[in-house]
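Late entry, evening session. Most of the bench is empty. Finally got around to the prediction I had been postponing all week. Sequence below, unchanged from the version circulated by S.P.
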Amino acid sequence: MADHNIPRTPSAYHYPLLIKQLLTTLQIRNPEQEIVYGDRNRYCYRDFAERVARLANALESLGVREGDTVAVLDWDSHRYLECFFAIPMIGAVLHTVNIRLSPEQILYTMNHAADDVVLINQEFLDLIEPIAERIESVKHWVLISDEDTTVETTLNSAGEYESLLAAAPDTREFADFDEDTRATTFYTTGTTGNPKGVYYSHRQILLPTLVKGLALHSPA
């Protein structure tokens, strides 16, 4: 029978199952592997890691702290991937807003999640602007655009995504914390009443990812 009371070597690293471990693995194993967003953008994992650090630092400069919620309304872009890493890695919660919900249901989910900062693609401004004043907790709006034009909006914008990243440092030491910390939240379609919130911790996200990785690399 294993003795679980054996003391751990002081220098040993207690390896929490945090999303940041995935980023570390990508940088070590495939730093030159490319990430491609349609015909708009491509860069390698090394550049990706720098952008994740920039995003984390930019969000922190906007006052985002551990336990806060950052909502994202965007297409399936390289930016969304950056958010899936940077936001949970600073201990905040990523709220993936379901753009297929009705405006009233979106309003309900954003108030229920108590979003502190919202990153929004300009293509969803018409959806959000009419309800923005009724979203109670938002402190900052960050605009996202695939175009090189100035985005006009009635929202009180804290800046544009790429501009904020360009002004932020490209390095950061991401701290360890409890692997059961909430990482993401999303909402069901609300077919039986209001949408229901679903939450995932770092451990719940990382563990199946590691298991799948081991299965893919195991000998036949």
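Two things to note before I forget:
The chain is about 35% helix and 20% strand.
The two ends are 31 Å apart (CA to CA).
Will write this up properly tomorrow.
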